Automatic annotation (TrEMBL):
Residue ranges of the TM segments: none
Residue ranges occupied by any OB-fold nucleic acid binding domain in the UniProt entry: 12-104
Protein species of origin: Halomonas urumqiensis
Protein name per UniProt: Exodeoxyribonuclease 7 large subunit
Entry-linked Gene3D superfamilies: 2.40.50.1010
Residue ranges constituting the Exonuclease VII large subunit C-terminal domain according to the UniProt record: 131-442
Origin organism lineage: Bacteria, Pseudomonadati, Pseudomonadota, Gammaproteobacteria, Oceanospirillales
Catalytic reactions of this protein: Exonucleolytic cleavage in either 5'- to 3'- or 3'- to 5'-direction to yield nucleoside 5'-phosphates
Length: 450
């Protein structure tokens, strides 16, 4: 009798296994606090937030559902260092091990961003970010340093083809992510600068790639790459990531564009705009030319109307000359006649005022005045004598000397003062008596009262 067949072990379905694992994780850990750096933050239209929490050795997928995400005040950005509270679980349909986040707290800036800021400050102090050379517009030969399979080169070529089909472009394929990216880009820059010495038409470099996480773009924060861009003899434009992404390559480059498409738009003009402008300028030129021709035609007509035959001009000038000669002859004759009349008038005036006549008249007047003078002098002398005699009689009548002549005397003291009263003298005082003729010195012997 053959031995019985072994019983097959009971097998769990995938759903059962994931469910059991989820229940074990949720029952074993409960709520936990985890600290790490944010990476790959995603916000779909559902309102949930998905991200990865990592440190230097491990990663943990996290999910922050919409009903909890609305209570997070600070923005969650790649590179931020945070502390989250949640419970461990498994997403059963995919078997993903994840942390269901209930709360998020900022724990400080992430290590990558801290290192980025330190390096940025040091390079800025050294002058690595001082480049500001203008790029040729449009460049004769554009050298694009990027991944040959990325969306960046497709966007650049599409924009260049639409805006400026004449652009000459050379792709320099390099990795744009990972450890080998920065050395490859540095080597490409060195090669392009050496080749530019042999081919001067190569006049601009574009370093570009599409968007990504902070880790994806970290190669463009390499210190040696920033220095290589700074020392490039050819001007460099950097267009790395999306508009919000900024790398050290952007700071070291001569120009920066927010996206690869924007870089292509800045490098070349738009042929449609140029065509429109050219058509507008052509229309303006035609209008200006027509207006100028009309203006010059009118001017020509005006000049033709003014233009006369030389014979007519000479005849008109001969007539004018004859008229001027006649006017000159009449003027000269009138001037001579006026001068003759003026001469006759002046001669008559001169004859009327002859010096001989004036001298004879003055002589007659002098004789008359002299005779009158000689007759008037004796009469005036007699009249003045009579007047002086009358004045002498009047003076004699009022003169004190006349009183003295009648026997009176005037007594004066030594100072010449007149003595009016006996009381004004003193016995023994010497006085002067003024008489009609002469003077006497007298002495007062005694005073008598009236």
């Amino acid at each position: 009798m053959p031995p019985p067949a072994p019983t097959a072990p009971t097998a769990l379905t995938v759903s059962e296994l994931n469910r059991s694992a989820r229940q074990m994780l949720e029952g074993r850990f409960g709520d936990v606090w985890v600290e790490g750096e944010l990476s790959g933050v995603s916000r779909p239209n559902s309102g949930h937030v998905y991200f990865t929490l990592k440190d230097d050795q491990a990663q943990l997928r996290c999910a922050l559902f919409r009903n909890r995400a609305r209570f997070v005040g600070a923005p969650m950005r790649d590179g931020d260092l945070v502390r989250v509270r949640g419970r461990l679980s498994i997403f059963e349909p995919r078997g993903d091990y994840q942390l269901i986040v209930e709360a998020v707290q900022a724990a400080g800036i992430g290590e990558l961003l801290a290192a980025f800021e330190r390096l940025k400050t040091r390079l800025a102090d050294e002058g690595v970010f001082a480049n500001a050379r203008p790029l040729p517009y449009p460049p004769r030969h554009l050298l694009v340093v990027t991944s040959p399979t990325g969306a960046a080169i497709r966007d650049v070529l599409a924009v260049l083809k639409a805006r400026w089909p004449l652009a000459s472009v050379t792709l320099i394929p390099v990795p744009v992510q990972g450890r080998e990216a920065a050395p490859a880009i540095i080597a490409a820059l060195g090669l392009l600068n050496r080749q530019a010495m042999l081919d001067p038409s190569r006049d601009a470099i574009l370093i570009t790639r599409g968007g990504g996480s902070l880790e994806d773009l970290w190669a463009f924060n390499d210190e040696h790459l920033a220095r290589a861009i700074f020392h490039s003899r050819l001007p460099v434009m950097s267009a790395v990531g999306h508009e919000v992404d900024v790398t050290l390559a952007d700071f070291a480059a001569d120009m920066r564009a927010p996206t690869p498409s924007a870089a292509a738009e800045q490098l070349v003009p738009d042929q449609r705009e140029l065509a429109t402008r050219l058509a507008l300028l052509g229309s303006r030129l035609e209008r200006a030319q027509s207006a100028r021709l009309e203006r010059e035609g009118q001017r020509l007509d005006h000049l033709k109307a003014r233009l006369r035959h030389p014979g007519d001009v000479l005849a008109r000038q001969r007539t004018t000359l004859a008229q001027l000669e006649a006017r000159l002859a009449r003027g000269m004759q009138g001037r001579l006649e006026a001068d003759r009349h003026r001469k006759r008038h002046l001669t008559a005036r001169l004859a009327a005022h002859s010096p001989q006549r004036q001298l004879a008249q003055a002589t007659r007047q002098l004789g008359t005045v002299q005779a009158r003078l000689f007759a008037a002098i004796p009469r005036e002398l007699a009249r003045q004598r009579e007047r002086v005699a009358g004045l002498a009689r009047e003076l004699q009548a009022v003169s004190p000397l006349a009183v003295l002549g009648r026997g009176y005397a005037i007594l004066e003291d030594d100072q010449g003062g007149v003595i009016h009263r006996a009381h004004d003298t003193q016995p023994g005082q010497t006085l002067t008596a003024r008489l009609g003729e002469g003077r006497l010195r007298v002495e007062v012997k005694r005073r008598h009262q009236r």
